[in-house]
Write a structure and sequence with these properties.
The chain is of the alpha+beta class. The chain folds into two domains: 108 residues, Pseudouridine synthase I, catalytic domain, N-terminal subdomain (Alpha-Beta Plaits, 2-Layer Sandwich), CATH 3.30.70.580; 139 residues, Alpha-Beta Plaits (2-Layer Sandwich), CATH 3.30.70.660. It contains six helices and ten strands. Strands 1, 2, 3, 4, 5, 6, 7, 8, 9 and 10 form a ten-stranded mixed beta sheet that branches. The longest helix has 13 residues. The chain is globular and about 65 Å long.
């Protein structure tokens, strides 16, 4: 290349870097989790393969929350910095055409360059569904955990309220890093009806969650509902910071990541 051509190429405009966020819905039944793993299909793995097919870019996507095998999502959020020039409408159409049918992109939008799906989040909302019927349901088998024993839902609803506020949640989960203190904004348990089926919905919203925290809370509430734990035991367990004091970890397929909240200027 001669000097003139070299000089001209050095003045070509650099590709514009964009930060794109996605809201993802997925059925976790046949997935081994949200984050990349070597032992099966993951949401991140499927998304990154689809993105490379679409744009040619090999990107690493950041996720707002880690969900385990079998856990579902209605409002998982992921982001990545990209040089693609495609419109957000084209991005959504293309990804939905390339992703497997158990993963859907519900929304695409541009975010500030500093936005990070995990670290910019200020709140995460989870829901856990129980099917409270004498017989199992074929259509609900992947969506809710079947409980055929009588449950004292009123006692469960009263017990869960103690979790609201700022607490050390070590009794209900673990974390590989940092503090086990979180602020819980919502802690509710109530009955609902869907297609003549009796459901119990347990909603928890917090700044963040420890590993298996929601499922352990649910497992403990089930012991309250079955009369194995007193209604006021939840406060004692929370204060103990001892995981062995809490109930078992409830099955994964009743759990949903419903939404992730960000400050208005970044989300």
């Amino acid at each position: 290349m001669d000097a003139e051509a070299s000089n001209a190429s050095s003045h070509l405009p650099l590709p514009t870097m964009r930060n794109i966020a996605l809201q993802l819905e997925y059925d976790g039944t046949d997935l081994v989790g949200s984050q990349l793993q070597l032992n099966g299909r993951t949401v991140q793995g499927e998304l990154e393969v689809a993105w490379q097919k679409f744009t040619g870019e090999a990107l690493r996507w950041n996720f707002a929350g880690r969900t385990d095998a079998g856990v579902h999502a209605w409002g998982q959020v992921a982001n990545a910095r990209t040089t693609t020039v495609h419109s957000i409408e084209t991005v959504q159409r293309a990804l939905n055409a390339l992703l497997p049918e158990d993963i859907t992109v519900r929304r695409v939008w541009e975010v500030p360059y500093a936005f990070h799906a995990r670290y910019s989040a200020i709140r995460r909302d989870y829901r856990y569904l129980l099917l409270l019927e004498p017989s199992r349901s074929a259509l609900m088998r992947r969506r809710a955990v079947h409980v055929d024993l009588p449950l004292d839902v009123a006692a469960m609803a009263q017990a869960v309220q103690v979790l609201k506020g700022v607490h050390d949640f070590a009794a209900f989960g673990s974390t590989p890093e940092g503090s086990t203190v979180r602020e819980c904004f919502v802690a509710e348990c109530r009955e609902e009806q869907e297609n003549d089926l009796r459901l119990v919905a347990i909603d928890l919203a917090a700044t963040g969650f420890l590993r298996h925290m929601v499922r352990t809370v649910v497992g403990t509430l089930l012991q309250v509902g079955r009369g194995k734990l007193a209604e006021n035991a939840m406060a004692r367990i929370l204060k103990s910071r001892d995981r062995t004091q809490a109930g078992p970890t409830a099955p994964a397929h009743g759990l949903y990541l419903m939404s992730v909240t960000y400050p208005e200027h970044v989300g």
